[in-house]
Specification:
single chain; alpha/beta; 7-stranded parallel beta sheet; two-stranded antiparallel sheet; 17 helices
Length: about 350
């Protein structure tokens, strides 16, 4: 039996055909088996912090679809929760937390973070134990800018205006927050890696609201610091950076951050992604709406991606998370399309190896 971890291999710069596939938010509300477990616990965070259940949910989509990777079931807001920000999740409102201001930022205490997050590391150990040797286990965290937007506003906001205003009105405090988040998130990733994660992914979900200068200072600089800290202590760690809404600013993200692989959202042109692929592995970028709709909308888009990126180092994924209303049958169809996609595409200059 082939025991190669194909996602890890591609992140290392190798090309595989058919390309390995996993899907952002693959473990979650679109699966009936997830909904059954979710109904059995008191809150979303209870599920995240119960290692046996979090590991089970992590493995559910791999069992159902035979995906090439599992991603830890958790949430980017466990970091502010571990900092004492009182994170809560509501079905109607989404996440809420105690907003931070200059005084609260100055008083943030990082002393108990590792102990608070021990259940997460145990969930990784349990998932790795039960995951096949050919499956990659992915750990993750949110990028400092994205996490900070929730911490400043106390909730998700459409335009992230509270964080943007605070960043410019209180630059010293905001930089302190970003630096703190970069440091504790790097340590969090290191501990995930030590617990058994093969690859780590950093999610920057809200870069689309940042202009060029703010993008450099609030997004790129903290991510680069995180990767430096991780790799200085764990040189063998491999890191995917997914920055949603960065557009052409993605061109030099790999060089500026040290990322091993770039995740790309669904709005980016295939020709642009092919240019990024000349520099190294890419991951993405099927529109989640195509998966939701299914049929020819799904088949045509998936085939277009396979033809355009399959001859280089490529991980097939969505350009953002699965819509909760997506039918599992559509996911099954997508996996079939990828794995029954015919001969290997002809060699192409984007290939690294």
């Amino acid at each position: 039996m082939d025991s190669e971890k194909k996602v890890l291999s591609v992140v290392d710069g190798n090309r595989k055909w058919p390309p390995p596939v996993w899907l952002m938010r693959q473990a979650g509300r679109h699966l009936p088996e997830y909904r059954e477990i979710r109904a059995s616990v008191g809150s979303f965070l209870d599920l995240c912090y119960t290692p046996r259940l979090a590991a089970e949910v992590t493995l559910q989509p791999v069992r159902r679809y035979n995906l090439d990777a599992a991603i830890l079931f958790s949430d980017i807001l466990v970091i502010p929760d571990s900092l004492g920000c009182g994170v809560k999740f509501s079905e109607s409102r989404g996440p809420t937390l105690t907003p931070v201001d200059c005084d609260r930022i100055a008083a943030l205490n990082v002393g108990g973070i590792s102990e608070h997050l021990m259940p997460v590391f145990e969930a990784i150990r349990l998932a790795r134990r039960d995951l096949g040797d050919d499956k990659t286990l992915i750990g993750f965290c949110g990028a400092p800018w994205t996490v900070a937007t929730y911490m400043v506003a106390g909730q998700g906001t459409a335009d992230h205006l509270p964080a943007r205003k605070f960043a410019h009105a209180h630059r010293k405090s905001f930089n302190r927050l970003l630096s703190l988040l970069a440091d504790v998130s790097a340590d969090y990733l290191i501990r995930q890696f030590d617990a058994g994660a093969d690859v780590l992914q950093i999610f920057e979900s809200w870069a689309d609201v940042l202009g060029e200068e703010d993008f450099d200072q609030f997004s790129i600089a903290p991510i680069a610091r995180m990767i430096y800290l991780v790799k200085s202590q764990r040189p063998q760690a491999r890191i995917i950076v997914f920055i949603r809404g960065a557009g052409v600013k993605l061109r030099d993200v790999r060089d500026r951050t040290g990322a091993d692989c770039l995740g790309v959202d669904w709005t980016q042109p295939l020709s642009f992604i092919a240019e990024l692929q000349k520099q190294g592995p890419v991951q993405g970028n099927l529109d989640p709406l195509r998966l939701l709709v299914g049929g020819s909308a799904l088949r045509d888009a998936a085939q277009h991606l396979l033809e355009g990126l399959g001859n280089g180092p490529f991980i097939f994924n969505l350009g953002h998370g699965i819509h909760p209303e997506t039918s599992p049958d559509h996911v099954t169809e997508l996996i079939h399309i990828i794995r029954a996609s015919g001969p290997y595409p002809a060699a192409h200059p984007t290939c690294l190896k």
